[in-house]
Amino acid sequence: MIEVKHIYKSFNDKLVLNDVSVLFEQGKTNLIIGLSGSGKTVLMKCLVGLFKVDQGDILFNNRSFVSMGNDEQKEIRKEIGMVFQGGALFDSMNVEENVIFPLNMFTDMTLEEKIDRANFCLKRVNLENVNKLSPAELSGGMKKRVAIARAISANPKYLFCDEPNSGLDPRTSIVIDNLIQEITQEFNITTVINTHDMNSVIEIGDKIAFVYKGKLWWEGDKYQILSTDNPEINEFVYATELLRRIKK
Amino acid sequence: MIILSRLGEYTQLMLSVFQKPEKKSIYRRQILKEIDSLGMDSIGIVAIISIFMGAVVTIQMAFNVDSPLVPLYTIGFATRKSVILEFSPTIVSLILAGKVGSRIASEIGTMRVTEQIDALEIMGINSASFLILPKIIASVLINPFLIIMSMFLAMFGGWASGVLTGLVSSNEFIYGLQFMVRSFDVVYALIKTIVFAFLISSVSGYYGYYTKGGALEVGTSSTKAVVYSSIMVILFNLILTQMLLA
Questions:
Q1: What pTM value is reported for the model?
Q2: What number is the ipTM of this complex?
């Protein structure tokens, strides 16, 4: 469980996050949605500690991330897995080396155990016989899946995904979404996904936080979002002609 | 003000770089990998430049020593002195600033813009240390070997050009090379090499690490890395020469 309490973040006097409080629950896929520039990426970067908040607190299972020292923060970070928008796979390593990288750094497992774990994780994301390929040889969808495999290799308690569907076709997007949801439930982890893809919202939105102009504007789930009368939400959800027609 | 802010940023980065590594065995492996990519891959260019540099120095010496009062072995002696004191440690370091510096800055810069550095940070890894420390250690370890190799090849190039053009006999040139040898010259050259290796790798690492933006900015960082590490090499060449030889 991750609890965000009244956080503020500004850059050069421009307030980007304004008193945001939200609870991300364990075993659920929690989605942060919003328009481009609304502050959702900044919120996620604050959650994972890439940005320091100006005010407020972030609690990882009741442990305050903001007030702890660097060493304690490092320990929390070892419990975090993250899937970046572009995958962020290490170019100098092949697929297998990418997946075992967190294990190399933080465990005393033998090479055989690490390779077994890598094979398990890659199989879990429906990738086999790609161990020796370099990231450059993978398609966009495969990169995302390897990134998910790397993120779960060290058994994280928290999984963060930054726009995991960007650049993917709708079918592959659904595969990735379902994969993340299955992994979340299977390993009972707290998953936070940053997205503006409505397909993801409807497919896997157990909990949805809508960020608008730096504020938490609305909270709910995938059923409530379709029936809310909040004008900003409706503007976001029914932005496309297709969805407007479906609504009619 | 910008210089001070950059200097502060560089110092802060170096403090992060020289922190205790998370896992020494991984760092050791990284150092060996960097020795291979930064050092071994530079052998070819260093060899070519050294041979031709030595050849040119010898020919220039021969044309300037046209007095019958100056013995011909002076050509070998002057070539050795020039190569050991200046050409190999400084000129080859400047070449390495171009080759190795741009490689380090573009590699780390690309990792920055593709969020690979963020990925390391989120895993709880000190990214500055993980990426830059092995490169600094590898450069400091391998560059002295490259420079020593360069010295031998430059003297060989000088001998070959002198003998093949008939400007000096083989015996006279070799006598000159062996004339009044001072071991401190080599020590001085190696001290310079080690300092230059540190400057090239750390300054390039700094420009790569603080890259912001996309592909264009990676190119800009790479160029800045080469320019500023070259300037630092030239500046410290003067400082070290004053300190060690004056």
A1: 0.89
A2: 0.86
